């Protein structure tokens, strides 16, 4: 008996050892799959419940459980769950009385990162009103476009954004739009104050009947994403998608005892859905900042005992570029245990861990409007996710071969797409099913259709085209390679090339513009560059062109480099060629065409010399 026991124990130990050798991530895989199945069952329960149980209801349950628990820390002030609930009641009642809002009415929020963003959204949710989250960096034409495509009749703005409102106010008034400013006073005709109305309103709870018809498929939000169209598109975010995004914290191991640090803009999916809404789902405390500050980041983490942080690749790099602290373990003197985000380079990832300690980095791949995403739930540096059979069963996807020159999928003689091999870069596409729908863009059926890809694996099937190139290794890890089409990413923001080109060609000297993103050593993403041709008989007007881009484009979208060409190369279908231009970059030693650099200190475009190029490479000039 003893011999048999010894043999069985030995075989068990050998099996565990072999599993550890050949399946080193088995434990993490099992934990992720189990967590995903549990969350999937919860979502199924919410779908089936009557009345529909929304994230708002989850928040209200948290209010009942711990009304005095701090929900948001902001600039030295604390707002409890009970505070946030009462303030949102006042917002809802004020808007109900002043703007006559009712269930289904869309409202555009043009708000900065501040607590009023959160309680205003909660107030709108209590009325059953979808909110359009406007990027507070956009101005003029882009602002009007973003506002109009969500079909809103009400616009609510932060007091600090009054100047941007005044630029578009005549058009808004022509369209009969009600404009409200988060202020006690305003002397501008056509802009109504809202803070004074909120302060006078009752904070009593509102009837659930006000949102009685909201269900899992109803629109909860409009979040704007740049793509191949140029102007931003309003991605329709349903309540089902809100729930799914809120679960990301749970999958990454966040618990109700954690303290979550948000320094990303709330108008994006990461800050609002994963961060703020995810915090409501977990019932945790949030530390909210107006904007990211590398110098104050760790001080904030220590002050508030932060345990979970959000990042984009740029924020990780900024933190790694801060001066080193000499004191022993000084840089590891914090409680942060999890970092959730996307877009970090492998070298920065490694340096971040070496400097700041054993933080579980949970790198994501997803798109606001997409139907497929990945999470790297292991400690594998560089991967954006991991393939497993449960994930693929519920959210079917594939990588297909893609021709980067023609910018289209490679198809076989039968007209079907060809699956990319393991280790080969391919275009990620997600099959559109009831479980993984693609809802599309508000007021933009043409661009919705462009993201649909048909006859992929078999005739008649339908897939969502992510527009992203990825590859899978033989260990089932997923890696992001590049973005295709007319979009690049800089400072954590998607930049649509055609929108930038439209602004450039408004300059009196520029005839045509071909905008693209180029890599800069030591920086995440790609910075804006444009090859332009000049109007016949015109010289390049560096001052007017500078004023044009600064007046109409946010800082991250302004092309920092211009290349003056005699003509722009076109494809056979009259599309501007970009691949060669991207590869050539902006090195004046290798390019004969005149090059210019946007110099914010001189407030004009200046000739790009080799000295400037070297200063950029050495990071003496900050971009």
UniProtKB/TrEMBL annotation:
Catalysed reaction, written as an equation: a long-chain fatty acid + ATP + CoA = a long-chain fatty acyl-CoA + AMP + diphosphate; tetracosanoate + ATP + CoA = tetracosanoyl-CoA + AMP + diphosphate; a very long-chain fatty acid + ATP + CoA = a very long-chain fatty acyl-CoA + AMP + diphosphate
Keyword Ribonucleoprotein applies: no
SUPFAM superfamilies: Acetyl-CoA synthetase-like
InterPro entries per record: AMP-bd_C, AMP-bd_C_sf, AMP-binding_CS, AMP-dep_synth/lig_dom, ANL_N_sf
Domain AMP-binding enzyme C-terminal: 502-575
Membrane topology field: Multi-pass membrane protein
Domain of life: Eukaryota
Alphabetical keyword list: Cell membrane, Fatty acid metabolism, Ligase, Lipid metabolism, Lipid transport, Membrane, Nucleotide-binding, Signal, Transmembrane, Transmembrane helix, Transport
UniProt GO molecular function: long-chain fatty acid transmembrane transporter activity; long-chain fatty acid-CoA ligase activity; nucleotide binding
GO BP annotation list: long-chain fatty acid import into cell
EC numbers on record: 6.2.1.3
Record domain AMP-dependent synthetase/ligase: where: 61-387
Cellular-component GO terms for this entry: endoplasmic reticulum membrane; plasma membrane
Subcellular location: Cell membrane
Signal peptide: 1-20
PANTHER family registered for this protein in UniProt: LONG-CHAIN FATTY ACID TRANSPORT PROTEIN (PTHR43107), LONG-CHAIN FATTY ACID TRANSPORT PROTEIN 2 (PTHR43107:SF4)
Family that this chain belongs to: Belongs to the ATP-dependent AMP-binding enzyme family.
Name of the featured protein: long-chain-fatty-acid--CoA ligase
Gene (UniProt): LOC117732258
